[in-house]
Amino acid sequence: MLRSMYSGVSGMKGFQTKLDVIGNNIANVNTVGYKKSRINFQDLLSQNLSNSSVNPMQVGLGNTTSSIDVLHTPGSLMTTGVNSDVSIMGDGFFVVQKGQDDGAPESYLTRAGNLVVDKGGQLLTTQGYNVVGLRANDNTFGPITIDPEQFDSYTINRAGEIYGKNSTTWQEELIATLAIVKPENPAGLSKVGGSLYEMTMSADENGVIDNTDLMTAKTANTEVVSGQLEMSNVDLTEEFTELIVAQRGFQANSRIITTSDEILQEVVNLKR
Question: Global pTM?
Answer without folding.
Answer: 0.87
